Amino acid sequence: MADENTNEVVAPVEGAEATAPTEGRGPGRGRGNRGGGGGNDRNRGDRGGRGRRDDRRGGNRDEEQGEELIEKLVHINRVSKTVKGGKRFGFAALVVVGDGKGRAGFGHGKAREVPEAISKATAAAKKAMVRVPLKEGRTLHHDGLGHFGAGKVTVRSAPAGTGIIAGGPMRAVFESLGVADVVTKSNGTSNPYNMIRATFAALGEQTSPKSVAQRRGKKVADLLRRGGASAEVAQADAEAIAE
Q1: Which residues on neighbouring strands pair with residue 153, listed in sequence order?
Q2: Which pLDDT tens digit goes with each residue over 147-176?
Q3: Which of 101, 184, 201, 220 is most exposed, with the fewest beta carbons within 10 Å of its own?
Q4: pLDDT digit string (tens) for 64-108?
Q5: What span, in angstroms and rounded, lies between the C-alpha atoms of 193 and 6?
Q6: Among 103, 117, 95, 91, which Cα is nearest to 169's?
Q7: What is the β-pairing status of strands 182-188 and 164-165?
Q8: CATH number for the 70-130 domain, one of 3.30.420.10, 3.20.20.150, 2.130.10.10, 3.30.160.20?
């Protein structure tokens, strides 16, 4: 019986001695404390790991964008809904985004708070950016008309030093687009949403001599000579056209 009791006592002790170095840090701590401490360490490690992963994702987003964008807040609309407890307010934002080098887009977002609505609108505008060919990087290649709903806009190229002759939402579009000289006129509605859409409709019809020459299978200098310019002047102008 003594041998059996001895065996029964020794077996757990040997198991405890085998697991003690891996579970605990000192002889004075109980198993519950050791388990709690290990769980807290693991939780802290998980939190730290998640934080580092979030930082890495944010860095990737910044590297993917890689360029500084011009953001213009055009309009904020507040609406309210009457409910049982009172009124519930919401906000809608219209934002124009551009890189100042011929790319621009617009978007709108809705949320319960103004910053969140602006963030949604900005994200939508970045996804809807379009490229517009610019003459000498400062103005449009030719005149254009845009129409959306009751909004009608006219855009015209202008010589250097004219500036942006536009107001309201249209000015925000050309500033974010990088246009320095342009003359515009808006007829019909003053709704900023329709004005923005009509402006982008007019910009979507812009073409450059280079794209027209590629489409017709000709040289840019041949197209410019049809305007009455000499061969030397047409060739110089063709070489100066970037897009």
Answers
A1: 146, 186
A2: 999 999 999 999 999 999 998 899 999 999
A3: 101
A4: 456 789 999 999 999 999 999 899 999 999 999 999 999 999 999
A5: 89
A6: 95
A7: parallel
A8: 3.30.160.20
With contact defined as beta carbons under 8 Å apart, do 137 and 112 qualify?
no
Amino acid at 13: V
In three state form, how does the secondary structure of the chain look?
CHHHHHHHHHHHHHHHHHHHHHHCCCCCCCHHHHHHHHHHHHHHHHHHHHHHHHHHHHHHHHHHHCCCCEEEEEEEEEEEEEECCEEEEEEEEEEEEECCCCEEEEEEEEECCHHHHHHHHHHHHHHCCEECCCECCCECCCCEEEEECCEEEEEEECCCCCCEECCCHHHHHHHHHCCCCEEEEEEECCCHHHHHHHHHHHHCCCCCHHHHHHHHCCCHHHHHHCCCCCHHHHHHHHHHCCC
The helix/strand/coil state of 188 is: strand
Return the CATH number of the domain spanning residue range 144-240. Answer: 3.30.230.10
Q: What is the pTM of this model?
A: 0.65
Q: 107 forms bridges with which residues in the sheet?
A: 95
Amino acid at 157: S
